[in-house]
């Protein structure tokens, strides 16, 4: 059975002006239930991660300042959110959702987090709506608990996974692959193990051609025992923060290719949602729902 991390706090009632990106989590949950792609049995509410799991990736002083709400104003501005106790609680639960999801993927082949994909969180600071790096923390958990010896992170959000690249820069057991818009945030990019920068206006054909060429090569050369997939839907043409020109159908084909590749190779995969900022919320929900539809069709 497909297992999905979801908690009502994921929607997090932010001040006016910050609500829109967050409302999609609750709406996506409702849509998946309404259309019958999922039932309540598919969803689990994550708890709070152990300190040792977070501190294996993030600086202790940074974590302390987050929890005590004592980050300086400059650091808070980088987050993009007002720093509140509820926001920090939310980030803890999202992180545990991905850790638990990784554990469930080992059993079921795949698990998903309806939030997460917080790839802009560095070891010692957060930025761009990312406080803790959920997939990095879960990857570290797998390594430390000897559940995998080689991990591949496939980041197909329109924005480079700069925090993930920094965290694993000196970790040969984790291969970071980020395929993103060259002209998009972050404007000073980190160095992933493999970065593929896409020109503004990149369409389905080019995007899927590059992905279908590169991913099998990476799986063959790196021989990962586990894959983390960041399935941001901000690659589509209508996205306000993206500059690519992929279609909704092309975005679904991307998901189908990644998940089919994992299934065919017998590699467990954990999927976090990442970004999606089209003007119409129904477009965002449909694109994210496509990832779940593909997972159900391919795996179950």
TrEMBL record:
GO biological process, one term: epigenetic regulation of gene expression
UniProt GO molecular function: histone deacetylase activity; hydrolase activity
Domain Histone deacetylase, chain residue ranges per copy: 18-280
Top-level lineage group: Bacteria
Keyword Hydrolase: yes
Entry annotated with the keyword Hydrolase: yes
Name this polypeptide is given: Histone deacetylase
Keywords: Hydrolase
Family: Belongs to the histone deacetylase family.
Pfam families (alphabetical): Hist_deacetyl (PF00850)
